[in-house]
Each structure stands twice: as structure tokens, then as C-alpha cells.
Amino acid sequence: TARNLLLLPGDGIGPEAMAEVRKIIAYMNAELGAGFTTDEGLVGGSAYDAHGAAISEGDMEKALAADAVLFGAVGGPKWDDVPYEVRPEAGLLRLRKDLQLFANLRPAICYPALANASSLKPELVEGLDILIVRELTGGVYFGEPKEIIDLGNGQKRGIDTQVYDTYEIERIAGVAFELARTRNNRVCSMEKRNVMKSGVLWNQVVTETHKRAYSDVKLEHMLADAGGMQLVRAPKQFDVIVTDNLFGDMLSDVAAMLTGSLGMLPSASLGAPDIKGRRKALYEPVHGSAPDIAGKGIANPIAMIASFAMCLRYSFNMIAEADNLEKAIAEVLDSGVRTGDIMAEGCRQVGTVEMGDAILAAFKKL
Ligand code: NAI
Ligand code: MG
User: Fold this and answer.
1) Who is most buried in 34, 148, 295, 335, counting CB within 10 A?
2) ipTM of the assembly?
3) Where along this sequence does the record place binding of Mg(2+) (predicted)?
């Protein structure tokens, strides 16, 4: 079976990190018979420079045809003043929208070697492995009306509208329950049913979805504000957290800070399965284009490599390979090899390429 990947390295450190993934793909093709075919495209500022758009129609077509998209990062000071419609982020938003990527998966994993470097107490985060499933295409970021109206008396009114339909909640809950079954079989759903009608519906639909098809999974409900507190107080109580777009945005950033550097954090965005059960999917590091370190060869490629591990897991069901790649990352960190962002006393500081090489070497041995 062909496995078609579209690589969109983007701007800044995006291409530097993507180069390390390319090496892993080449190895998997040559030695493991993985059968990946790769195509490349431009996104963000680099697409604007070449085509005057944040992503060209041709590259959008490639993205729609691919089994999975690997996305680096977009943006940078060079494009701060380009028109709003073609700003670098527009490329990512277009991809999310046209591929209908409604499920955003943000793991918060604390690698043992980094537990002590955490700004929180090591005993709270050691062994942490949670997955936040955030609804990505609905809720208050997209609901109508969405506007600023002039009230005429020197006052204006800013309006955003939280809207969720049953099917939107059902499908994100389904993703969370399915994922929980491949992990520790627990889901915590977070909303604010005490003050929001959409929260009442969210709670009802998650409960019904659970009863109908996933009663083997343990389901818990938590108010989202209490959930934020619990994430910081005792994060290891969670396995899978499912929540809406706004709360998911905030809670996943909170969870990110339990794990160390931005340079460590992968993500996946999944669409609905087609008749053959295949989902559109995009995998990207949580970090941006890091213009402050771009071109210096010092960026941490782990977030990008871990995003590729998610791709192996969720798009191609290559579970053993995904496990091994994640294990390779952990082993390299254990061995004391570090990029600057995660550097600690007694460790050996390396650049992007050396970190990528070390992970590939560890991966080859597994
Ligand atoms: P950023 O994530 O690019 O950088 C924040 C800080 O973390 C910087 O000091 C950077 O050097 C460091 N950092 C990030 N990734 C790193 C890595 N892999 N290794 C080592 N250090 C790393 O966020 P910032 O500075 O707010 O935004 C920079 C540009 O990126 C902006 O143009 C922004 O719009 C864009 N951006 C793009 C995103 C995307 O493509 N999905 C997401 C966030 C920001
Ligand atoms: Mg955010």
C-alpha cells in the first residue's frame, strides 16, 4: 500500500526540523520497506513569496489528495505587514478548514529525563502521559454572529457566539473514546454546563455517545475551570481529556507547560473517516517558526519528529514504529544529549542535525 505524505516545511525553523523527519522517512523506506511517497509544498511566508498566497491552490490539491500532511511552522517578521488574507497563518487555517480537521490531539508527555527540569514539582509530572482532544472547527471561534457593532453612544459591542450542534459534539467525543481505548481507557469531558447552554448540550451528548457506543470506557465530567486547576494540581489523574475549541486552546497550553520546552510538543489534527475509514490528517509541532533562532541550526527537532510519530500511529496504524520512535527520543534524552532549549547541567549540547542523527541512530537499534 502506498503511503502518501505531503511535506509542508514552511518558514523559519520549520524546514530545519522537517529535514530531520525526512531522514527518518528515508531510513524507513530503505530499511523497513515502509513505502512512503513524499511530495513537497510551500506554506506561509515562503508560499507568499513564491505565489502571493499563504498556500497555492496546487498545494491545497496535494494536501487534499495526501494520506497525511506534515507541517513545519509558518510566519516571521518578514511577513508581518502582508495583507491579512494572505498572512502566513492563513495557510494553516485554510488547511484545517478544507481538510475539515475537527479533532486536535495535543499530548502532554513528560519524558523522564526532563522531569527535573520542569518548572513544576517533578513528582507531579514524572511519567505524565495525557492526551487533550480539542474540538477545532466549531465553538466560539467560528460561531455567528461574530462582530463589533457601534452602539452609537460612544460604546461599541464585541460579539462572539458559542455554537455547538449535536453532530459536532458526537464526533469529537467519538474520537476521544476511540483514543482512550488505545490508551488507559479513561475520558474526562470538560465544559461549563453550570453557566453555558452549549455546555449543557456538550455534557448531554458526550454522555449519550458514551452510553450508546463506548460504555466500556470510563467517563468523567469536570467543569473546565476546575479541570484547569486539576491539570496543574494533579495532572496524572487524567488519561484523555475532551473539550471544546476555546477551553481546549487554553487547557492544552496549560498542559504544555507541564512538560518542558515548546520544542518538545507535537500535535495532530484529524478529520472525519471516509467510507474506507481513512481520515484526513495534519501533523505539526506546537511551536512556531522561532525567528529568533532560525537559520542557526540550533532548533530542537523533537516536536517535529514526535509529530511524525503521531502520524505513524494515527494515519498509518504503524504502532510499533511509532512506539519505537518515541522510545528513541526518550533514550536520547536519557543519554544526556540536549538542544539548547532543554539544556541542563551535565548534559551535552548539540544542534538540530546532531539531535536528529542521535534519534535516528537510536531508532535504528530498536
Ligand atoms: P515560537 O514558538 O516560534 O517561539 C517561541 C520561543 O520558543 C522562541 O524563543 C523560540 O526560539 C523558542 N522555540 C520554539 N520552538 C523551538 C524549538 N523547536 N527549539 C528551540 N526553541 C524553540 O513562537 P513566537 O515567537 O510567538 O512566534 C514566532 C512566529 O511563529 C510568529 O510569526 C508566529 O506567528 C508564528 N507561529 C506559528 C505557529 C505555527 O506555524 N503553527 C504557531 C505559533 C506561532
Ligand atoms: Mg493556543
Assistant:
1) 34
2) 0.98
3) 225, 249, 253
